[in-house]
Amino acid sequence: MAYDDKGNLTNLLDALHRTNRWTYDTRGRNVETFHADGLKLSKGYDAADRLAAVTNHGSGLYLRHHYDDLNRLRATVFPDGTTNYFHYSCCGLEHTRDRLNRTTVFGLDALGRTTSVTDPANRTVQFAYNGADQITHLTTTVDGQTRTKRFDYTATNGASRLTRVTTPMGKLLKYDYTFRGGLAWRQDGNGNVTKFHYDRLERLVSVTDSNDAVLVKMDYDVLGNVTNISSPHSLIAYAYDALNRATQAVCTLTNLPGMATVRYRLDYAFDAVGNLTNRVLIVANFFDVVKLAELAS
Known about the structure:
By secondary structure, the chain is an all-beta fold.
């Protein structure tokens, strides 16, 4: 990777060691993109800094964007002259008509919240809200068949949190939270419970199932960086430099049916100003150690 003095990405080497390039104007706007496969795209902007046109120099074709006085996208014109249209009411997006003349209609309430979406096939999704702007009912209608999912919330410690979801088939999902708002446990529609455990800093340290078997365990260093994430079949270990930047991640997969132990390692390198300059992936299994790629990304 390479950057200009304003921090904009200017060069990126892909997995085949081909270069992608970006150029910018004096205002930091991307004006040209040179893809590794030879494609060149140019972007033009209007007086309000809005993207107005995208030109493909290989084909000579371009897209044009038009906006209203409130900076809302009103139309996108394609190279063949077909157009996507966007229509607004006082409260927000009201309906769209695409280049194939298909219309999608949006219902809005006085607060600008989406209350319904009807697609070109006349399939409808309806939304109902509580006073905290949280969705309480989601109703879908397809081919005359209506199904509703219900969401229930409980106010605890000054926050309204999702505690129950009732599916259209009548299954019940439940959620509970810690005093600080972390998810304490959840129960799926079949009654299976997953528990989440935290340390005194409210960092997630483990996840267990209904029988208290550990599904995931996490460890941290004194600076709060994750150092290990382990499960019955894997271990991911992280290393950091003095600036708390991740410099290495090692993933070891074990006890997988029909597989030997496999290890993946990612190494990262940075330049003097903190830009990622190199990433190396190494995979080791019972055959050999193979250096797969050395990417400037």
